[in-house]
Amino acid sequence: MSKLSIIVFSGTDDKLIPVGVIAQGAAALGMDVQIFVTGWALTKFIKKPANPVWPKEFESMVPLLMEGMKKNNAPSWADMLKEAKSMGAKVYACSLMASVMGLKREDFNELVDDIVGVATFLQNAEGGQTLFI
Amino acid sequence: MSKLSIIVFSGTDDKLIPVGVIAQGAAALGMDVQIFVTGWALTKFIKKPANPVWPKEFESMVPLLMEGMKKNNAPSWADMLKEAKSMGAKVYACSLMASVMGLKREDFNELVDDIVGVATFLQNAEGGQTLFI
Amino acid sequence: MSKLSIIVFSGTDDKLIPVGVIAQGAAALGMDVQIFVTGWALTKFIKKPANPVWPKEFESMVPLLMEGMKKNNAPSWADMLKEAKSMGAKVYACSLMASVMGLKREDFNELVDDIVGVATFLQNAEGGQTLFI
């Protein structure tokens, strides 16, 4: 079984869509999927998540994107991630950045399986492929 | 022969330069190169491509970049991609995001070889390296 | 020993933090780490580096981030990179983009080991994992 790891750093909502799509697609193919949430993205995995944030360069296209997602009955990135998790994917929050941002275990929502350090993540990722999003 | 896959999500023109450079360089080394275009980047692979979009943070440096590209006779990212394709690289548009954005096969330009789903892409990418740009 | 390569294109200071953290973590695990600096990121590896640049979308959160880094005694990304280099990591500047930006060998600071082309980088990266940041 091949391994796919995703480091999610970007906190804009557009980039969470490919995180969900790729995680779900890879898990459905039987890949061993782990997601390491760090940086701004941590603000999207807490009980009181940040409001949607879109890249300044493409703000004018966001309504088209949202309408297209709805028309295609595309699930939200969080629902795709839940689906991936139901097939074995794991989601970890980065311990260093959680601490830097003052986030504790109880601040994270049910998407997060655990808080781990970068060394643990890198060791889990060995021998597979890793994306930085 | 080693495999290099590139997921191109960002639609700003600066990030299309490394897509072209890396695809051409890898193809020239005999690597098996596939490019999966999704998200905002789809707007750069259609017959009526979007106007150039630059990251807000570096807009003031764009004239210097463009002048430097010209002085160095650096080809455009599209020409580098054509060169990569002439050496065997393949360019695929993401079926889900194409549908979300209302883009059909005939909307894409000659750079695009086919429209495929993420599962097909991930299977093709197995055993190689994948970049998310 | 497994190989980890990082292409650093983004020039915003937030994304240099994971470059430092991952490079140091991977080097400490005994991985063979190489960093290929290109695009806007080149402006952060010169003797007169550009002023800090933050993503427009998260500018309001930067003071919280900086305060958290200080409270956690987190080293700067440059210090983490120096630590990684002391354990064998290598940092290369991209020859094409250096030329495009009018940067010569003597313009780069002590973090940069050499200026290399993309073909050399890709060959060094073969058989490992590569991140694009």
From TrEMBL, chains A, B, C:
<dbReference type="Pfam" id="PF13686">
    <property type="entry name" value="DrsE_2"/>
</dbReference>
<protein>
    <recommendedName>
        <fullName>Peroxiredoxin</fullName>
    </recommendedName>
</protein>
<dbReference type="InterPro" id="IPR032836">
    <property type="entry name" value="DsrE2-like"/>
</dbReference>
<dbReference type="InterPro" id="IPR027396">
    <property type="entry name" value="DsrEFH-like"/>
</dbReference>
